[in-house]
Amino acid sequence: MKADWIQARQTKYSAYVTVYILVVLAVLALANFLANRYNKSYDATANKQFSLSDQTVKAVKGLKKDVAVTYFGETGQFPAARDLLGRYANLSAKLKVDYIDPVKKPQLARAAGVRQLGTIVVDAGERKEDATSLTESDITGALVRSLKGGERNVCFLTGSGEHGLDDTNGGGFSTLKQALEHNNYKARSVNLTQPAAPTGDGAGAGMAPVIGQVQPAKVDIPKDCTVLLSGGPKLAYTPAEAAAIKAFVEGGGAALFLMDTPLRLGAQEGSDNPEVVKMLADWGVTMNNDLALDTSGNGEIFGFGAEVPLVGAYESQPIVRDFKEGEPTAFPLSRSLTIGSNPKGTLDKVISTGARSVAVSSVAPPIQEKVKNGVKGPLVLAAAGTYNNGKPGSSGRFAVYGSSLWAGNSFLGSGQFFNRDLALNTLNWLTSDEDLISIRPKEPEDRRLNISGNRMTLIFLWSVVLLPLIVVGGGLMVWWRRR
């Protein structure tokens, strides 16, 4: 009787079902365990919008002390916050994330100084920083600020026709200013053409200057400037201004020169800026009076002509060491540089064009003849170097680009190029923050689907008419065969 019960069909089926359920539960338990321990995901978006950037990964994995990140928001927003902040926590055991609802725990929000829902507080112990939006750029910026501490001021030179810091036009630097402020920098304008305030020195305190005597204007660079940025000056700097910039760099400061070509391009005529050219030549960089043209035709993909060289392969200098081949940067209306030797320090190429490029000394017709006889590429478009002043740990740094438009709003705000990363990497290198050099969080792209009327009709016929008919026809065929 017992043997019959064991061999019964119902007993076998019950055993099969039990084993099947146990196997499924074991698989689910194992999957849950692995999912909790190893959080893996796949980002199928074109610009990896849902993957943490190289900068974030480098900053979090490089933590040497504990960092507490607290999200203050409504309980219903916790899942969205965990989706992003959880990726941060998975990168390092030194980063802990907590979630607090200010409505339920107002005392904690008040103690943290939080006044707005959705605020993320990053506490690195000695310094706290806030991120006001649940975006990677804001959170990573707050993390970097909390770790680095101190102020890094980028002083944009004005008074000689440079691009404006707050200009929102295509060549303006408002996008660069915003990017800097997201990355632990403060940006402001400094006018070197304005004479320094009188200090009572010179003729003696309380004494009036001698009538008819020309007093040279004193050029002072603010002592809190970490980096000087000269962005496409249209007027030449005076010897006093150039001397002040040179003394600043050689004294241990840093400067970024974006020097446009002096060639006449249509109604626009650049400035030769002889004082700056001479200063850079002393450091080993020769600014050529030409225009770099890209004859490869790669720019046509983005609607550009030869006057906008595209670069997709990079040198080994730290500014571009994290750029991968094929990640394009664009340099509109750029002059070329000739790199020599720097007797007082180092000098390296940063950006060079491909072999199918040429530098022309004039753009007057016929341009084809000038292209034929021009200097063939590769052409150097950017260089960076140091100046050793003999003081340990206080060498000056400088970077030179043959164009200023590449750092303007039109190209820095474009999601097609890596110009924003290049600009910020250059500033990181100039301020000796090489550990921050990387590819940064990308802004979400507005990728719209444009469909013509004919395609819309085709989609309608396929999805609304043909597919249902195929399903119905298949059902009828199955019914007919079974019948």
Tell me the radius of gyration: 31 Å
How would you sum up the global shape? globular
Give me the number of helical elements: 13
In percent terms, what proportion of residues is strand? 15-25%
Low-confidence stretches: 196-216
Class from secondary-structure proportions: alpha/beta
Helix content, binned percent: 25-40%
Provide the domain count: 3
Largest sheet: 7 strands, mixed
- The tally of beta strands, per DSSP, is 20
Major beta sheet, strand line-up: 6-5-7-8-20-19-16
Describe, in short, the structure shown:
This protein has 483 residues and is of the alpha/beta class.
Could you characterize what this model shows?
The strands form six sheets. Strands 6-5-7-8-20-19-16 form a seven-stranded mixed sheet, sandwiched between helices. The two termini are 45 Å apart. The protein folds into three domains: 36 residues; 89 residues, 3-Layer(aba) Sandwich (Glutaredoxin); 262 residues, Rossmann fold, CATH 3.40.50. By secondary structure, it is of the alpha/beta class. The radius of gyration is 31 Å and the shape is globular.
